[in-house]
Design a protein that fits this description.
heterotrimer, A alpha/beta, B mainly alpha, C alpha/beta, A: alpha/beta, 2 helices, B: mainly alpha, 10 helices, elongated
């Protein structure tokens, strides 16, 4: 076999290329937290989800436990139905609170889970009964101004 | 008189353009059809991988590093105003993985490897090497074009990944090592924001599409070049211009499909 | 009859965009002969070769090689036919990205499953036949024009073709290389028992080596015969061509208006 230096270089090229892909996947991206453990699905209904989007994180006590997979309007209730994938390692009681929170004042929105005290855990496909909608800044300002107007009356 | 003449000129250009599009499409399909040899005798493709991939390595790595450094400096400047320097990693990584990596790597690839391919095939045609091959009962599409096509398609996503990885490293050097953004939040914010499927895989898909577009344009321009010195140099220029436009146009379309912001 | 003639060209007409190039050409190439087609540049000689190779299709008439009508063959049959043909292009058309060895070995590797050792031996034989044994590791760019032409010749005969076509094999060669290539063409033809067609405008060299000559002018045959017939030809054009005379049926001047009028010589003459 001749031209072995050429093969060597092509080999280096391919290895470096796939290495870069691996770095992107594990160091830059979230593949390391991706399929490592199985996940299960939970749903929650919200009156208003504000700016919540698919791929938003689901956190409990600040720890990432899952991701939002789908956001859609349920036309029978006219509420937003949010589907999320939760890491199988984490189980939550039936009376867990699901809140839509904002990281920082203008940061992105995520779902915060506050565990309750129930003995029974939520199973795949079930839903959070207790939810709190996103805080919409305009509503807040509106309420504040309305309150001020009431006070000065 | 002048009006009819210019109208006739426009008409001829339109017809010529449509003609070329048709010929180009047929050329592309023929390349796919005669691709068997590129895999049966993979050495042919490996050889072209050397000329397209390895030869573009340095420019891609250096350009990626520079782009990452600039992103780090500019991003820090802007993010500092909102007090969210810790999101620097997110900004650098997302802009590279989604857009700058695939697009800039493809643009560099077009001017480095694409133009070389056009010139090489154009010269092979001008010196009757293509005709000679045909007279030797060897299909030049299978023997010359297809291996180069596959080499381009294989090397493009790898080059884009290298570009992005170098860029992230550049951003890290500027943000963490030089400016002093917290290293933990740099990486963790990046990791929680960059999704493997949504961001990285879509970036790879983009670069594969760009790779197909650039190599097909380069090879076609070479194959279609008039067999003269001016013909080949004109074809080389057209390769760079058309590939760049194709990359940016395809990027608009792909971005619209991939990141609609659901 | 057909076994005697390897190539038969019957009433071939060809036109590019309604511009006629070939007008009713009839030629016969018996097996084992070395035949030249001569004429001025652009008279349709190369076009004729392309018809034999099946690159172009005649608008009328047909070309028969080894009993088969070329333009009726499908792609696979045509490629099979081309394996039995060899063509030497005007400037050799060596593959510039391969060594001399790989150039000569090209067809063997593409069309046969011969092991590498046998290919090596065959390549060395072919290179030896053209007197260039020892150049196998050079690149085409390192060869002189004459050597490149001989390497191309070695590549052309790589698979021992039954028909060898030469497109201007003498173009741009120095007198020594010219004689060498000319003698090689003759010797290879006889050694391989092949039939050769040489398209050229180099009269003196080709008259020395060929068996028969067709003279083509403006897409039609104007004279044919052996070398002596051609030398003695009474046809004015052939005479001018063979002896390289400056003026004759092909005028020195491009057919334009009167140059003296353009200079205004008449009017100035009137002034003086």
């Amino acid at each position: 076999m001749e031209r072995s230096t050429l093969d060597l270089w092509v080999g280096i090229f391919v290895v470096v290329g796939f290495g870069a892909l691996a770095v992107l996947a594990f160091k830059v991206g979230n593949l390391s937290t991706y399929n490592v453990s199985q996940s299960y699905q939970l749903q929650a209904y919200f009156d208003n989800i504000g700016g919540l989007k698919a791929q938003a994180s689901v956190k409990s006590a600040g720890v990432l436990v899952g991701r939002v997979t789908e956001v859609r309007l349920d036309t029978s209730l006219y509420k937003a139905r949010v589907t999320m994938n939760i890491d199988k390692r984490y189980q939550f009681p039936k009376d867990t609170f699901a809140n839509i929170l904002t990281s920082g004042l203008l940061g992105e929105q995520y779902i915060g889970l506050m565990a309750g005290g129930d003995e029974v855990m939520l199973k795949d496909g079930e839903e959070f009964k207790k939810t709190q909608s996103a805080v919409v800044l305009e509503d807040l300002i509106g309420k504040f101004l309305y309150g001020k107007a009431e006070e000065t009356k | 008189m002048a009006i009819t003449r210019s109208l006739r000129g426009i008409g001829a250009r339109v017809v010529g353009g449509v003609w070329r599009i048709g010929f180009g499409t047929r050329f592309f399909l023929m390349t796919l059809f005669y691709s068997g040899l590129s895999f049966r005798r993979f050495r042919l493709t490996v050889r072209e991988l050397f000329f397209t991939g390895v030869m573009s390595l340095i420019i891609i790595l250096v350009a990626g590093l520079f782009v990452g450094i600039v992103l780090g400096m500019q991003g820090y400047e802007t993010l500092k105003r909102y007090g969210s320097e810790s999101a620097l990693g997110t900004l650098v990584a997302l802009s590279l993985v989604r857009e700058l990596g695939p697009v800039l790597a493809a643009l560099l690839f077009a001017s480095r490897a694409g133009s070389a391919m056009t010139a090489e095939i154009g010269l092979m045609k001008a010196t009757e090497q293509i005709s000679a091959m045909e007279m030797m009962a060897v299909n030049p599409i299978a023997r010359v074009v297809a291996p180069r096509f596959w080499a381009g398609v294989i090397s493009m996503p790898l080059l884009a990944a290298m570009f992005s990885a170098m860029g992230v490293f550049g951003g890290y050097m500027v943000g963490v090592v030089m400016i002093g953004v917290d290293e933990g939040s740099f990486w963790s914010q990046m990791q929680s924001a960059v999704d493997f499927q949504h961001d990285i895989l879509n970036g790879v898909i983009k670069s594969v599409v760009f790779g197909v577009a650039v190599t097909v344009i380069s090879l076609f321009e070479g194959f279609d070049a008039p067999p003269t010195a001016e013909g080949v140099s004109g074809a080389t220029t057209r390769t760079v211009v058309q590939s760049s436009l194709a990359i940016l146009l395809l990027d608009v379309i792909l971005t619209a499909f991939m990141f609609r912001g659901e | 009859m057909s076994s005697q003639e390897l190539v038969e060209i019957r009433d071939v007409n060809f036109a590019y965009d309604s511009r006629p190039i070939l007008k009713g050409i009839n030629m016969t190439f018996p097996r084992g002969r070395l035949i030249a087609i001569m004429g001025l540049s652009g008279c349709g000689k190369t076009t004729l070769l392309r018809h034999i190779g099946g690159v172009l299709k005649p608008t009328k008439g047909y070309v028969k090689v080894d009993g088969q009508v070329i333009h009726e063959l499908d792609q696979d049959a045509l490629y099979l036919m081309r394996r039995k043909m060899g063509m030497l292009f005007q400037f050799g058309a060596l593959f510039t990205d391969m060594t001399v060895f790989d150039n000569v070995a090209f067809q063997m590797r593409e069309h046969t499953d011969l092991p590498e050792e046998i290919i090596r031996d065959l390549v060395m034989m072919k290179l030896h036949a053209v007197g260039l044994y020892g150049t196998q590791n050079l690149m085409p760019a390192e060869l002189s024009g004459g050597m490149a032409r001989r390497v191309a010749l070695a590549r052309t005969i790589a698979l021992d073709p039954m028909l060898i076509m030469y497109d201007e094999p003498f173009a741009g060669l120095d007198p020594i290389s010219l004689t060498v290539v000319g003698q090689l063409i003759r010797r290879l033809n006889d050694a391989l028992g092949a039939t050769s067609i040489v398209v050229t405008h180099d009269v003196q060299e080709s008259l020395k080596i060929v068996d028969y000559i067709y003279f083509v002018s403006d897409g039609a045959i104007i004279a044919e015969g052996s070398a002596d017939d051609i030398r003695a030809s009474g046809e004015a054009f052939v005479h001018q061509f063979v002896y390289g005379e400056m003026d004759g049926p092909i005028p020195f001047h491009y057919p334009a208006g009167d140059f003296s009028k353009d200079l205004g010589i008449q009017s100035r003459g009137a002034d003086a």
